Amino acid sequence: MTDDLKDLKLALKAATPDPDPSTRAAHLALARKSFSDLQGSRDGMRPTSNRPNRGFWTGALSMLNTFPSRTALTAATAIVAFGFVVLHYSDLGRSNFPSRDTPAQQDIQQEEASFADLSRTPRPKSRAESRELDGAAPLGTSTANFGLRSEERATGITSRLVEGAVSDSDAASPTGIRKLAEPVAPPLALDREEFANADPGQLLITSETPVSTFSIDVDTASYAVIRSSLMSGHLPSPDAVRIEEMINYFRYDYPAPDEAPFRPTVSVEATPWNPDTNLVHIGIQGALPEVEDRAPLNLVFLIDTSGSMKQPNKLPLLKQSFRLMLGQLRPGDQVSIVTYAGSAGQVLPPTNASDRSVILNALEQLDAGGSTAGQAGLQQAYATAAAMAEDGEVSRVILATDGDFNVGVSDPDALKSYIANKRDSGTYLSVVGFGRGNLQDATMQALAQNGNGQAAYIDTLAEAQKVLVDQLTGALFPIANDVKIQVEFNPAQIAEYRLIGYETRALRREDFNNDAVDAGDIGAGHSVTALYEITPVGSPAQLSAPLRYQAEATGHGREELGFLALRYKAPGAATSQVIEMPITPDIGPRSDAGFATAIAGFGQLLRGSDYLTNWTFDDAIALASRTKGEDPFGYRAEAIQLMRLAASLSEN
Amino acid sequence: MRMNTSETDLALAAAGGDAAAFSALLSLCYDGLFRLSFRLTGSQHEAEDLTQDICASLPAKLTAFRGDAQFTTWLYRIAVNAAHDRRRRTASLMKAAEGWGDWEQHRQAAIAEDAALVGWLTTAMASMPEDLRDTLALVLDDMTHREAAAVLGVSEGTISWRISEAKKHLRILRRTEDQT
């Protein structure tokens, strides 16, 4: 070794730090979690440890058993004998453990033996099976194999064995070692989708945690993602299921508000999946201001034109979707288009919506190519929006992407705070997702939540119609910002409760009164639904044993189930207002609540919830069909169709 | 760096679903894995990220581990591959980053600053072609040529050749440094 190399070695030794203990602990915890997640997804643990006892003898025996040809047998025996001698020597000064630290030939033989087995089985189905094959074939059958002399097996194995034996001296048969070194990768899905979700809502005990706080959510992306999964014939990943987004995909006939920007409606009904609990529905209906009076809009379309957008369900669908949307704009509105791919560029300077042909032309000329530079595009889009803004106008950036927004951004937090800053300056951000396989749902969620916008996912032109045409006003005109819901349950009436959905929207109790904490927005005409499953005191469904010593409920409202408080800010306002109402037992059910319940049940089935007992997809279908009601555009009928698909898929 | 019998046995048990074995195995191997990650990447930050990636994906990969190779050999092979993937990603990131806003430039500057701290070592390692660098990372960690060959999936002769190439490389580097 030359001095340079020695220097380098010493320098490396000195420079290599010890792992940071906390990072180390975090990584180990991560790996353990990943490990246990994986176990959960298997068919179940084997009851006994049948880990392979692959000592020297079993390996050698199984190898002998699997070799059918005489040549191979001779060669193998010779090598094993040689190996054994070496082994014997090397074992002298060591532990009595059967050494794995043996010369390479033994490994190579075992390797060859097991690969020969692999080549017979088209694809090892499970570890247990493949071990049966390469581990301990009973002697009887293998004797029979000696007689068989299957041509291809004999020649194949002999030639490989010879190759292994010859190259043994340098321990480097390129094929042998490569096989040995490269682990056989499990058939992992190749898509790079990431979904934002948290653990399903846990059952809470009212006497311990009487207050539940969360932010509203008007997104619908999760429902469209689930639909696209089911339509392509597989169940969605449980993480892709956000129940509140499924429920809020549909419109319910909540009474419209009179003066306030929105109006809460509460109802209580029996839980279909548990006869001993009740469901509390909290519905919020946003006011729908006169469309004629609306303020002029400044829209900046920020369009991802990276190479991955080429597919027909991405850029072409996007063009058609935005074409539909243009029909909804007014002459006073302005549109601009910024693209990002490689470098960001303004394709269409701010143009009046009345110049339809100019806008359509620019839209048509978009072409996919290059990689994604999201951050630069976003900066330019915000700059354009700022230039367009005038007093009393609403500015919004609409980001259309297939996901890979984050190329080049290693720090999502920096991006989030950038968007949050822009939100405070009055420009909103909505995110519209297209296409599958690359969808960074988590990023989209983070962007839209921080930009006070909506995240929607468009998989068909019909969905574009719903999101960009029918709900355009709601999506583009906020009527209340930072809407938070807080429910305090009465421990004298309710033993346990659980919020269904809204896992990603949970807030701390003290956040409710803190106006600095961001929350979701309601747009014109939006409706939002939240469901609690509650267990009355004394119900047989109660999962936790009641405490012997309880503080008596004091004060007023002993008969009430709970107390609902809503906090919101008028658009642009810095301080919040409160709407409060008690939840009383005499509220009773409402006719339209059943369908939301069916969707909530459907979502929980897709997430694999523990709380549904024996409730199945069939029950969900029955309930949804019964409560479908008037369904002018067929959205609910489509949901029932999806439930039927999921029922069939889950039987496989 | 000695291959350890019990590591491979633990790995097989872990592949069969034994959580305790997995936990014990990773505690045993973590330090070595981190050291190698550092040598492959040249910065503590990058090494931590790389180790994290490997830790997260290890359980899934482990199901395919059959004990055909020593566990450490197998694990280091994964580490080297993961480091390659990372380098590729970084390279395309740099390409995409050209002509970006201040934000990205600041980030790149911070990275460059970190790199300057480690000095000659990083310069020397980073200036090597990828294969030489991987080889050095393994061999300078007291691995024999044979073990390194098994990890990288090449012949022992190739390792020896790469080492001599690396020496040449260092000589040239030294000469240019002395001149400046």
Can you characterise this structure?
The complex is a heterodimer of chains A (652) and B (180). By secondary structure, chain A is α+β, with helices and mostly antiparallel strands. Helices cover 40% and strands 19% of the residues of chain A. In chain A, β15 and β16 form a beta hairpin. The longest helix of chain A is centred in the first third of the chain and has 23 residues. The two termini of chain A are 61 Å apart. Chain B has 180 residues and is mostly helical. Chain B is 81% helix and 0% strand. In chain B, α2 packs across α4. The termini of chain B are far apart. Classes of the chains: A alpha+beta (652), B mainly alpha (180). Chains A and B meet through α1, α2, α5, α6 and α9 of A and α1, α2, α3, α4 and α5 of B.
Estimated structural class of chain A = alpha+beta
Largest sheet of chain B: none
Low-confidence stretches of chain A: 42-68, 83-190
Order of helices and strands of chain B: HHHHHHHHH
**Please, how many helices of chain A?**
21
End-to-end gap of chain A: 61 Å
Topology:
The complex is a heterodimer of chains A (652) and B (180).
Chain A: H1 3-15, H2 21-41, H3 56-66, H4 70-92, H5 104-120, H6 127-134, H7 139-148, H8 151-166, H9 174-181, E1 204-205, E2 211-215, H10 221-231, H11 243-247, E3 262-271, E4 274-286, E5 297-304, H12 315-326, E6 334-341, E7 343-352, H13 356-364, H14 374-388, E8 394-401, H15 412-424, E9 427-434, H16 441-450, E10 455-458, H17 461-470, H18 472-476, E11 478-489, E12 494-500, E13 520-523, E14 527-536, E15 562-569, E16 577-583, H19 593-607, H20 617-626, H21 635-651
Parallel strand pairs in A: 5-6, 5-8, 8-9, 9-10
Antiparallel strand pairs in A: 1-12, 2-11, 3-4, 4-14, 6-7, 11-13, 11-15, 12-14, 15-16
Helix pairs in contact in A: 3-5, 4-8, 5-8, 5-9, 12-13, 12-17, 15-16, 19-20, 20-21
Chain B: H1 5-15, H2 19-41, H3 44-62, H4 71-97, H5 102-118, H6 120-126, H7 130-139, H8 145-152, H9 156-179
Helix pairs in contact in B: 1-2, 2-3, 2-4, 3-4, 4-8, 7-9, 8-9
